[in-house]
Design goal:
Layout lengths: L5 H15 L8 E7 L16 E11 L2 E7 L1 H36 L4
Antiparallel strand pairs: 1-2, 2-3
Helix pairs in contact: 1-2
The chain binds zinc ion.
Length: 112
């Protein structure tokens, strides 16, 4: 049985180091939208430029359902990095799995 090549292990350590420095991670995404209020007499009913908002909406899926929560601009500023971290976490997890498959195939001499 051969060893995992040092360059693959070095790459693994780079990924794990970054994971170790990761802050909070929030699932979901941010959508900024303008809305109509539904009152026929309101300006928003006829003029798209007069729609209300923009409102900042944080959307995520909970048990198969989309859950929305309104955020203030100040909250968005605070939590956007957490949401960005969540995407990075998924990227890193994917990289680590791909790398692990490389390590397995290399160590065992298996064809891809
Ligand atoms: Zn309106």
């Amino acid at each position: 049985m051969s060893e995992v090549p040092p360059e693959i292990d070095a790459e693994r350590r780079r990924i794990v180091d970054e994971l170790g420095r990761m802050g909070f991670t929030l699932p979901g995404s941010i959508v900024t939208r303008t809305v109509t209020c539904g009152r026929a007499t309101c300006r928003c009913a006829s003029d798209p430029d007069q729609r209300h908002g923009p409102y900042i909406q944080w959307s995520r899926t909970v048990k198969g359902r989309t859950v929305n929560k309104m955020l203030t601009p100040e909250q968005l500023e605070r939590y956007q990095p957490w949401i960005d971290n969540s995407r990075r976490l998924r990227q890193l997890a994917h990289q680590l799995e791909t790398l692990s498959l490389d390590a397995l195939h290399t160590a065992e001499g298996w064809k891809r």
